[in-house]
Amino acid sequence: MKNAKNLKEIRKIIVHHKRWDFIFMITGIFALMIAVLTFMALFAHMLIDGLPRLSWEFFTSFPSRHPEAAGILSAWVGTTLVMLVTAISAVPLGIGAGVYLEEYAAKNLFTEIIEINVTNLAGVPSIIYGLLALGLFVYQMGFGQSILAAGLALALLILPVVIVATREAIRAIPIAIREGAYALGATKWQTVFDHLLPYSAAGILTGVIIGLARAIGETAPIITIGALTFIAFLPPSPITNEFPFLSFEWLTAPFTVMPIQMFNWVSRPEEAFQLNAAAAGLVLVVMTLAMNGLAIYLRYRMRKTIKW
């Protein structure tokens, strides 16, 4: 009799928890659909307005006072170069810092303070990074209002994201991988370089591309350091015909980026400029989705090739 009563109580508890699981699932689906439908509505509106404006001339023309002749050549070139500086600056530094904090740093109060600050920096408003870059890179280091200063500003912005993603990816590796490497006589560096980094590469890559996808749409730091709203020329080419076939003059060149160009067009009263802004926004969204899609594909390929 007592066992039957206990079984009845257990079934009641299970039914109660299943009911809450169902409610939570419905709530999660509802929240997800709101986000997805909102994005789809905005994207559809932008697609309807901007798609007719997209053409080869739109990608190969400079901005103009005449909306029908205006293009995004200087904007997408500037965006590409700024993101190149951002990736070169933030990715190696962020991965190295993440590996050090997770594998080498001593577990003490100083390390805990660093970890807390790195985590908090990921939530700092982007305008703060712009002000920091303005004082440090533009004025103190004398980089001026250049591609280099913009790339370093965005590198500071995504650095905490890369560090946290690296640490989480390394932390997810089973402890047996480390123990097996040490048992075979591997050093700390050999364990990290030959085992931990290859196994965590998919997670690290995902964090890196998500960080870059965030940086490509940032406006506040770029405006703060003085990006131009109207520019009808391109920076010097990074590739030259003379030895050593590389030029770094483009790092000190003035620039503009896609969000700034969109902001300039949206501020104009003419409807044709609004259509140009919608077309530029469509290009920017496609670039961001492509970066995230690439991260998903590479993560799938890497996880498929790695055998635990």
Short key terms for the protein model shown above:
308 residues, mainly alpha, MetI-like fold, 11 helices, globular, transmembrane helix, Phosphate_PstA
The helix content, as a percent range, equals: over 70%
Structural class estimated from helices and strands: mainly alpha
Instruction: Give the name of the CATH architecture of the largest domain.
Output: Orthogonal Bundle
Could you spell the SSE succession in H and E letters?
HHHHHHHHHHH
CATH superfamily of the largest domain: MetI-like
The tally of strands reads: 0
Rounded to the nearest angstrom, the radius of gyration is 25 Å
Distance between the termini: 50 Å
Q: Regarding CATH, which class of the largest domain?
A: Mainly Alpha
Number of discrete domains: 2
Q: Quote the average pLDDT.
A: 84
Biggest sheet, open or closed, and with what strands and sense? none
DSSP summary: helix tally:
11
Oligomer: single chain
Query: Which residues sit in consecutive blocks of at least 5 with pLDDT less than 50?
Result: none
Principal-axes shape call: globular
Which fold name is given in CATH as the topology of the largest domain? MetI-like fold
Strand content: under 5%
Short description:
The protein has 308 residues and is mainly alpha-helical. Helix content is 73%, strand content 0%.
